Amino acid sequence: MSRKSYTIDRRQFVAGAAGTAVIASGLGGFPHIAKAAAPIKIGVISPVTGFLGFSGSQCRFGAVTAIEEINAGGGIKSLGGAKLEALLADAQSKAEIGAAEVEKLNEAGVAAIAGSYSSGISLATTQAAAKYGIPHCVDVGVNDKIVGRGLDNTFRFGPGFGVITKLGVERLIDINNAAGKPTKSVVIVHENTTPFGSYMAGLMRKGLEPAGFEVMEVLPHPTPNKDFKNIALKIKELNPDLVIPSHYYNEGVLFLRTLQRQRVAPKAIYSVLGGASSQYRFLSEFPEAAQYVMDSNHWYNPKNPKALALRKRTEAAGKHYSYEVFLAYTAVRFIADGIERAGSADRGKIIQALASSTWDGHFMPYGPTKIVNGQNMAAQSLNMQIQGKEIEVVAPAEYMTKKAVFPRPA
Question: What are phi and psi for residue 164, nearest 5 degrees?
Fold first, then answer.
C-alpha cells in the first residue's frame, strides 16, 4: 500500500467505481457510453503505526469494511449509485502527523473524514479539518473537548468519557449494592500521557466518594509503559477491594498480566474505558488474566443481527471484533447516511445533513440519532464482563446476556 496515494488496493472494492456502462441509444442501434457517477472520496485517518498501531489498524479495518459494504449495496443511491473511495492516512500515533495528513486529504478533495482513534489525535485532526470545512466524524476519541469547541464540522457518533464515566459509576454502585456492598475501598490506575486518562480518574473519584467508596490512591503512569511491577506492588500493599484501571490496549494487557503474576487479587477489577478489558484478543491470548474483569466501555447491541454479521466478517478476516472495528464502521456509515440525505458530495451540505441526523439504521445500543453541538446525545456505553470464553454484557438489563459475577470467585 502506498502512503503517497492514500488509496487502498482497489481489488478490495466492488469493481465499477469509475467504470462505464454501455446503453442502447435506440437510434439505429448504436450504443453510447454513459459514465458512472464519480466516486466520493472519504478520508480515513488511523494511527496504524506507533504505539497505537493495533487499535489504529482495527479502526482502519472497520472503516474500509463499511465502505466495501456500502459500495456492494449500490453506493450512494441519491447520487446515482456513486461509490465511496477510501483515502487512507496514517497518523503514526502522533497528533501533529494526524493534522498534517488532513492537509493532504484536503488537497486530494475528500468529501469527509472518519477517524482518528485517540483523543489527542482527534483533537488535532478535527481542528485541522475545520479550516477547510471538512465534515469529520470521530470514531473513538472520548475527550469531550473534541465536540466542546464549537466546531460545526466535527461529529462524534459514540459517547464521550463524561457519559461513559457517569454510567460506569452508576452501574458499579448498582452492582455493588445488589451484591451486598462487598467492595468499599478503591485504587484507580490510569494513563496520563493523553487527555482521557487523567480526566477519567477525576470523574471516577468525584462519583465514587459520595457513594461511600474510599479512594485509597490514584496511580498514574505514562503511555507507552513497559513495567507495571511497582504499581502492582503498591496495590498489593494497599490491598483495596476494587481496582479501577484505564489504559490503552498494550498497557491494559501488561497491567492485568502483572497483577496476575504478582498475585494481586482484589475482589473485583472494574475498568472504565479499559484498553484490554473488553477485547477478544486479550481473552484469546491470556484467558486466565482476563477472567471476570469488568469494563464500562463502548459496545454494540448484542441482540442485533447486523452487529453479529459484522463480527462474523471480522473474525473471518482473521481479526478480533473490538470496539475500534465497530465504532469506525459506524462512523463511516453515519457519514454515508449524511451524504445520502444531502444528495451531494458538497462538504457544507453534508455537515448540514449530519447535524440534523435522526439515523436509526445502526446496530449500536443508542436508538435514533440526536446530534447536539456535534455529539450524538443518544449514545451510551454498556457494561461487560469476561466470563469463560466470551465477553458478556452485564448491564443495563435490556442488553444483558449474562448476570454479573461480583465479586470475583476467590
Answer: -65, -45
